[in-house]
Each structure stands twice: as structure tokens, then as C-alpha cells.
TrEMBL record:
<dbReference type="InterPro" id="IPR006140">
    <property type="entry name" value="D-isomer_DH_NAD-bd"/>
</dbReference>
<dbReference type="InterPro" id="IPR036291">
    <property type="entry name" value="NAD(P)-bd_dom_sf"/>
</dbReference>
<feature type="domain" description="D-isomer specific 2-hydroxyacid dehydrogenase catalytic">
    <location>
        <begin position="3"/>
        <end position="323"/>
    </location>
</feature>
<comment type="similarity">
    <text>Belongs to the D-isomer specific 2-hydroxyacid dehydrogenase family.</text>
</comment>
<keyword id="KW-0520">NAD</keyword>
<dbReference type="GO" id="GO:0004617">
    <property type="term" value="F:phosphoglycerate dehydrogenase activity"/>
</dbReference>
<dbReference type="InterPro" id="IPR029753">
    <property type="entry name" value="D-isomer_DH_CS"/>
</dbReference>
<protein>
    <submittedName>
        <fullName>D-3-phosphoglycerate dehydrogenase</fullName>
        <ecNumber>1.1.1.95</ecNumber>
    </submittedName>
</protein>
<keyword id="KW-0560">Oxidoreductase</keyword>
<dbReference type="Pfam" id="PF00389">
    <property type="entry name" value="2-Hacid_dh"/>
</dbReference>
<dbReference type="Pfam" id="PF02826">
    <property type="entry name" value="2-Hacid_dh_C"/>
</dbReference>
<feature type="domain" description="D-isomer specific 2-hydroxyacid dehydrogenase NAD-binding">
    <location>
        <begin position="104"/>
        <end position="288"/>
    </location>
</feature>
<dbReference type="GO" id="GO:0051287">
    <property type="term" value="F:NAD binding"/>
</dbReference>
<dbReference type="InterPro" id="IPR050857">
    <property type="entry name" value="D-2-hydroxyacid_DH"/>
</dbReference>
<dbReference type="InterPro" id="IPR006139">
    <property type="entry name" value="D-isomer_2_OHA_DH_cat_dom"/>
</dbReference>
Length: 344
């Protein structure tokens, strides 16, 4: 296959794809707007942060497979891909530790005002009196919203620092998740509102869905105690950013954020987010999964998906396909259309 790699991807895994006989075009600086042009003649696309719009999918003349080298696929128009018979796959779970580490780093940074410490020292200012004020992590009640792989990894790290972990009880959790949660003495409460009232740290690890959009709204934020901390390393659109700014200004809420509603769709750009610039926010550049360890684990799984796709029968979906239902619906609504399937 001809594969366009439109974001950073480790050299050795591109070499592995080439060793399997694939022709890889490596254009890691490709923007969302340039993608339609760049996709010409390519059978597969590998992206990380670059958005894949309906226009890009519809302009592609050979595309059969899109792989998001990460877990979330909210930056990919999956329905547009389905209409063109294009499989969309992700790589779940391989970056969980990296995101959990960054979330823990944001919590520590907020508690000890680490970025402001550094900025003042670099400017020649010494203010030990100001920076000696911190609550510490030990004994704090940390609410974890979303006990998937990332949420559990963060919860375990928070517990190792002596925090009391809380989460919302759900009847359909699998036994393995419950075992890990019980191992760190997780306290379960009945609702998200109760979690907000109970905890002075809320950390969000949920996918971007219709149910989670604007999950962090004025009503939820109003339940938080003064000076509470909100952590979001999942998706920007789960937060009502205006409501969060209001809570920061009226109730002293602080936030550690890696994602924003209007962040650039490419690896570089201009930040216009009013939330990101707020003094109560310590923010990073959507880098939760960007450790060397995580990227190697993700890249290895991308290679496995490509290999499985090329070896599959035409009717077989590749691993981690996230738009299979939409593909089936598209096929039913248009009897002449079929999914492209595997094969070299």
C-alpha cells in the first residue's frame, strides 16, 4: 500500500512498514487544510493530531484506511469515511501511562506553583514566602471521572502519593477494573455531583461523545469547594470553558489542562484560547501521549493494524475499527457501495 504518514512517527516503525513492502510518504508537517492534496494516490493515512475532515476524505482518490495513532478519534470525520468505505481505526490503551504521568505532573505543578516558581527565578525574583504555601497531595480527596486505562493509571499514581481516590459507582464495570480500583481503596459515590461535592480535585478521563460534551458545566462546577482543582487531559469539548473561567474568578478554582476547545489542528500554530491564558490555568500543548515510551508502543500497534488490514479478507474489519457501524449503515443505505476491505 501507499501510506501517508501526516504526523511525527518513529523512524524504525516507518522502516518496518517499508520492510513489509509498503511505500511510505512521510510529511509530518501536513496541516488539516493540506491533507486533501497530500492524500492523492494514497491507500492509507496515519495521523496523530492532524484533523481529517470530510473534505479531505472526499478528495482522496484511493483511501481505504485511516489510523489515528492514539486513542481518541474526535478529530476524524468517521461518518464521511464510512460513506466512502474507509475504515477508521485507533490505538487504545497504549498511551495510558504517559497521559497519567502528565496529569499527575499538572496536579503537582498546581499544588506547588512550579511554573510560577521557575518564571520568577528566571526573572531574578526570590519569593520564598509566596511559594511556601501549598496543601500537598497526601490526604487530598481526588475524584477520577472515567475509570478506563488512563483514569485507572492516574488513580493509581495519585493513591501512591497518599491521595484518597474517589469515583462514581457504575453497575456495568468489568471485574478487572473493579479489582484495580479496590486495590487502591477507591471510594465509590452515587453521582458526579456528589463526587464534585466530596472532592477538592476532579480529574477527567473520558472520551468525546454526545454524552460527555460540556460535561464540566456551570452546574457541576458550582458543586466544587473553593480553591478546587480541575484536571483535563482527555478532550477539550468536555469543558464549558466560559463556565470554568467564571468558577476560577468567583470561587478560586484552578485548572491543569492539556486540551482546549479551540486548539490548533496541527502541531504548531497560534493559540487564541482565553482559558489557556487565564492565570489560574497551568496548561500544556496537548502532549499527554507524547513520551518516547508511549509513541513506540503506539507505533508498534499501528504497524500491526496495517499488517492485519493487508492480510485480511475483504469482509474482515481491521483491529480497533471505530466506524464499523457507520460503514454497515452506509452499505445498507447505498446498495451499490461496499467497503474496500483488506488486501495489498
Amino acid at each position: 500500500m501507499r501510506i501517508l504518514v501526516a504526523d511525527a512517527f518513529p523512524d524504525e516503525y516507518r522502516a518496518e512498514l517499508a520492510a513489509y513492502g509498503h511505500d511510505c510518504t512521510y510529511e509530518p508537517e501536513t496541516t488539516a487544510e493540506e491533507l486533501a492534496r497530500a492524500l492523492a494516490g494514497h491507500d492509507a493515512l496515519i495521523v496523530r493530531s492532524t484533523a481529517v475532515t470530510a473534505d479531505a476524505v472526499e478528495a482522496a482518490d484511493s483511501l481505504r484506511l485511516v489510523i489515528r495513532a492514539g486513542s481518541g478519534t474526535n478529530t476524524i470525520d468517521r461518518d464521511a469515511a464510512a460513506r466512502r468505505g474507509v475504515y477508521v481505526c485507533n490505538v487504545p490503551g497504549r498511551n495510558a501511562i504517559a497521559v497519567a504521568e502528565l496529569t499527575m505532573g499538572l496536579l503537582l505543578a498546581l499544588d506547588r506553583s512550579i511554573p510560577d516558581n521557575v518564571a520568577d527565578l528566571r526573572a531574578g525574583r526570590w519569593d520564598k514566602k509566596r511559594y511556601s504555601r501549598a496543601r500537598g497531595i497526601h490526604g487530598r480527596k481526588v475524584g477520577v471521572v472515567g475509570l478506563g486505562g488512563i483514569g485507572l493509571a492516574f488513580a493509581e499514581r495519585a493513591a501512591a502519593f497518599g491521595a484518597d481516590v474517589h469515583a462514581v459507582a457504575k453497575p456495568d464495570r468489568d471485574e478487572r477494573t473493579l479489582e484495580r480500583a479496590r486495590a487502591i481503596d477507591t471510594v465509590f459515590v452515587d453521582s458526579l455531583d456528589e463526587l464534585a461535592r466530596t472532592c477538592d480535585v476532579l480529574s477527567f478521563h473520558v472520551p468525546a461523545t454526545a454524552d460527555t460534551r460540556m460535561l464540566v458545566d456551570r452546574q457541576l462546577l458550582s458543586q466544587l469547594p473553593p480553591g478546587a482543582i480541575v484536571l483535563n487531559t482527555s478532550r477539550g469539548d468536555i469543558v464549558d470553558e466560559d463556565a470554568l473561567i467564571e468558577a476560577m474568578e468567583s470561587n478560586g478554582v484552578r485548572a491543569g489542562l492539556d486540551v482546549y476547545a479551540d486548539e490548533p489542528t496541527s502541531s504548531t500554530g497560534t493559540v487564541t484560547s482565553r482559558l489557556a491564558k487565564h492565570p489560574n490555568v497551568y496548561g500544556t500543548h496537548h502532549i499527554g501521549a507524547s513520551t518516547e515510551q508511549a509513541q513506540h508502543a503506539v507505533a508498534a500497534e499501528v504497524v500491526r493494524i496495517v499488517t492485519a488490514f493487508t492480510a485480511a479478507a475483504p469482509s474482515d474489519a481491521p483491529p480497533h475499527c471505530v466506524n464499523l457501524d457507520a460503514l454497515e449503515q452506509a452499505a445498507l443505505s447505498s446498495p451499490t457501495s461496499t467497503t474496500s476491505g483488506g488486501g495489498p
